[in-house]
Amino acid sequence: MRIREKRLFGLALLATIFLAGSALAQNENGKKPDFPPFAKVSEGFTKVVSTADGKPSLYTIWTNKKTGKILAELPRGWSNQKYYFAVTQAGGAIFAGLQGPTRYVYWKRYDNRMALIAPQVG
């Protein structure tokens, strides 16, 4: 894996470790929810504004500078979404702008954990 690709998947893996969402916390049976409310989980975290115009990006990212933790808030319907990551180098090298490695990925829940799955499709 190239350094840029490692960083992309490293960020995704960090986000899975600290993932919390209010959609997952709801339970129809009236039992105690499996997860605490997002408001409680995100205490001490600051929302990252990743676009100049403030429009939403793919995921809402929250960071806690004190602890170095990251939260990723997945959108509604996340379990049915598939993504295609196409990596390119923006500049600074002779191969800038050329398509690099690509990944087809999706999120999957395993009990109380999340995994970013990249199936072997080749």
Can you walk through the features of this model?
It is a single chain. The protein is an alpha+beta fold and 122 residues long. Helices cover 19% and strands 30% of the residues. The protein is built from three helices and six strands, in the order αααββββββ. The protein has helices at residues 3-17, 22-25, 38-41, and strands at residues 46-47, 60-64, 69-73, 82-88, 99-110, 113-117. The strands form two sheets. Strands 1-2-3 form a three-stranded antiparallel beta sheet. It has a three-stranded antiparallel beta sheet with strand order 4-5-6, with helices on one face. The radius of gyration is 17 Å and the shape is extended. Residues 13-27 have low confidence and may be disordered.
Structural descriptors:
122 residues, alpha+beta, three-stranded antiparallel sheet, 3 helices, 6 strands, extended
Distance between the termini: 17 Å
Query: pLDDT average, as an integer?
Result: 77
* Global structural class: alpha+beta
Helix proportion range: 10-25%
Q: What's the story with the biggest beta sheet? A: 3 strands, antiparallel
Query: How many DSSP H or I helices?
Result: 3
Number of strands: 6
Note the topology.
Blueprint: H1 3-17, H2 22-25, H3 38-41, E1 46-47, E2 60-64, E3 69-73, E4 82-88, E5 99-110, E6 113-117
Antiparallel strand pairs: 1-2, 2-3, 4-5, 5-6
